[in-house]
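Repro case for the chain-ordering regression, as requested:
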Amino acid sequence: MWDYSEKVMDHYRNPRNVGSIDDADAIGVAGSLTCGDQLKIYLKIKDNIVTDAKFQTFGCGSAVASSSILTEMIIGKSVDEVRKITNKDIADELGGLPPEKMHCSVMGYEALEDALKNYKADGYVDLDEILDEHYGTNKKEKIICTCFQITENIIWDAIKQNGLKTVEEVTNYTKAGGACGKCKAVIQDMIDTYYQKQKNEIDKLTPTQWILKVNNVIETQISPELQKDGGDIELVDIKNKSIYVKLKGRCSGCKNSTMTLKNFAEKILQDSLGTDVTLIEVK
Amino acid sequence: MDKKIVYLDNNATTKVDEKVLEAMLPYLKEEYANPSSMYDFAKKSSNAIKEARVKIRDFVNAKDEKEIIFTSCGSESANTAIRGVLNYNKNKKHIITTKVEHPCVLNLYQALEKQGYQVDYIGVNSNGELNLEELEAAIDENTALVSVMWANNETGVINPIGKISEIIKSKNKDTKFFVDAVQVAGKIPIDVQENGIDLLGISGHKFHAPKGVGALYVNSKTMITPLIIGGHQEKGKRAGTENTPYIVAIGKAAELAQEGLQYEMTEVKRLRDKLETNILKKIYNARINTGIANRVPNTTNIGFEYIEGELILLHLSDLGICASSGSACTSGSLEPSHVLRAMNVPFTAIHGSIRWSLSRFTTEEEIDYVIDKLPGIIEKVTSISPYQKELQALKALRNN
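-- result from build under test --
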């Protein structure tokens, strides 16, 4: 039995905005019958605002919940705002999904992306044409997982948006590698390439850019979390990859401060800045 | 709210029969002696195990109770049988099984394949029936063992075990035959002598004993190397202090199952058929995945086209109805059931396939409740499917 959140259960029990829109301004499709889940999303757009959204889903409880909540998230928003929505936003809005079910949120993101790609401000939308392109054999994008027809771009997006680090995580999020497993080596290469690229970019930074980057991570990702518990963190000094910080507020006297530092703060820094970063506490 | 439970997942596990519980309780309380001990206090435990062994002997119609070994579960029975035969005679390196076996056999065969065994996996037709010609062709002088399940856990399809044994022995009389009988125990008669079976495994919790006990039949002409090495218990074929209460339980459960066989084959079958017929009558996008294949009386596997199984199960669960699905989503494996894939069940139906399995405790009222509630659920799930065009075409076709 999956451990679904209340919100997921509410949405598969009472899905919102089910159906199709005959004169839709944009239609997106993701997944297929063979893969075991498919989502079609229909958008009505006026003056750059999504005025209506409907969906049809063939899939499990979390697939229906992801589709349903996505329609709620986009109605009333501008096309530019809608473009910024990621699969993580969908999963977060649902109060989280089991790891093995994250691919359902990715399917929502893919269908939305597909719809916006096909969107022409005053154009006519032909669903058959979209479906032809969706199932077409001469797809321009490179397919990585042939079992589930997962493209390179879908995998890149999932790694980037969710900070995926292992092949198993990529499978949970995109299904790629979940059947015959032949593409697992390619996926591993993609993960390695992505983090190598991230590391190269960091290595190219000037000392000032590096300090700003470190400070940015501390201020936007670590500090707000500690503040929730009445504590805080301050950047004291940076020597190459060693980052010196001081814990403040409740954190300073907390006997778990070393744990906070190593398990939480250092991990976040490493996720964003590379695994060779160490965090050192200054008392 | 106190939700009524309608339990139609008896191929997964069953409720413990009150009479079984009653029989085993003394051995969880006052009769706790180790049955191997010398004193009189141990006599009752040791006699209880003897009695249980006789009951299992009669249940499978073995010649001698010495041919019965108690184990902890169906998987242990299968592992003891398969590894036991192969380890006893390491010269032959070819083994055969089917593509639709339970994972306890299939995954073991895959592990053996990695260790250097040559393996043939025999296929099935679209009804789930084994390809006997393929099996016959696969057997040669180097074949050490053939494993075939008596009935499939997902579809209930029965394999002609007697005929399979004849085929095996006519091609190579030294080839051993293991039968995973977990899904037939208590549903159809088991006769190891009549069907020419060398080894046969059963599991208590599939016929109203508790989880954690199984049995293995090894005929007196078949030698095995034990899997669990230790004391002298089970004639050295399975070490470990005897689990007296659970052994008593499986013995009692076997006795009750034997008594209930007729009821199972007539009354349980009637209820299963009633469920099946009504689903087909009321739901246009339903199909029986096994066609006209011969099945155990309690099981039906029904595919609902263009919709997904987990969502159906979640809605059923909201009404207290328990069934299971071959869909990928329920297992988290991403791929639908290996059994339904081996049968080439169409992709339109494979993800929406639901297994219903009854027991002697299933009532007519429960079946009527499902018949009443299911069409609404299927309609609700169908209404959000993106395949409306295909569904309309299917509806027109079925209504003609």
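Ordering looks correct now. The longest strand of chain A covers residues 37-46.
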